[in-house]
Recover the amino acids of this structure.
């Protein structure tokens, strides 16, 4: 048993990489600023299509930043990036169409 403890006690600490830590703080700061902007719009703008458009666009900005930095998509080839962006555009179009049609059906009732 003492032999096992002796083998695992030789752990070498790696010094912190300041550049990586600063990059993570920068990413957290950008996401914090975008979230604060969302909160400001939520409490100051009247409810309606403009507020929904602002929320959707800011959410897309945050999602792009998260995907590009944490999933390292920013450093991938353009074909892979477009294979993700094009379906996302169609999904957003589908959401807008469904919200529009749902509002029209609600008005008819």
């Amino acid at each position: 048993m003492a032999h096992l403890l002796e083998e695992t006690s030789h752990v070498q600490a790696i010094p912190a990489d300041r550049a990586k830590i600063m990059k993570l703080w920068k990413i957290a700061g950008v996401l914090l600023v975008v979230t604060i902007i969302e909160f400001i719009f939520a409490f100051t703008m009247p409810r309606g299509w403009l507020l929904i458009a602002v929320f959707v666009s800011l959410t897309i900005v945050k999602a792009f930043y998260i995907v590009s930095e944490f999933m390292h998509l920013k450093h991938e080839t353009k074909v892979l990036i477009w294979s993700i962006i094009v379906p996302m555009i169609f999904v957003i179009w589908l959401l807008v169409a469904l919200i529009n049609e749902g509002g029209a059906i609600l008005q008819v009732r």
Notes: The two ends are 77 Å apart (CA to CA). DSSP finds four helices and no strands in the chain.
